[in-house]
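Journal club prep — side note

Before the paper discussion, L.F. wants everyone to see what a predicted structure for a comparable chain looks like in token form. Sequence:
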Amino acid sequence: MFELKRISPEAVPAALEKVERYRLLNEPEEAESICLDVLAIEPDNQRALIMLLLALTDQFRTGPDECVHQAQEVAGRLRGDYERLYYSGIIWERRGNARLSQGGAGSGPVALGWIRKAMDCYEKAEPLRPAGNDDAILRWNTCARLCRRHRLEPEGEPEFQPVLEDY
């Protein structure tokens, strides 16, 4: 079909600035495309990988299901343990949020499961965080508040209620 053109290495900083703008304009597909162009010439560019992951998670509500798997693959390419855990948490959290916004039968328990996975990632990232970086704590607290706001609770056994009989 069409052969993609390559950008020059000198254009990378300006291209990454455009990614931020497209994300702010709620145009994640455009942001994703630019990240892919940057990664075509700098496959290990950590900033581009993080921005790609975020652009993919921006598409969870309306984009194809493959965005989740692509974001997980990108998280695996991040260098540090903290970054892999923190951004894996972002993936699970945004997936849970997307499920909540879609609604429907069973959306609460499904969303809760994904949000709890996010919280686990954030808890594991917390002791690895750089000094002065409390992002994992902030995200964990956001998840906790989200669960409270939406009254998300694990499905459990229904509480036993004896039947009262009238004679």
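L.F.'s comment for the group: Helices lie at 12-24, 28-41, 46-57, 66-76, 81-102, 107-125, 135-149. Keep this in mind when we get to the figures.
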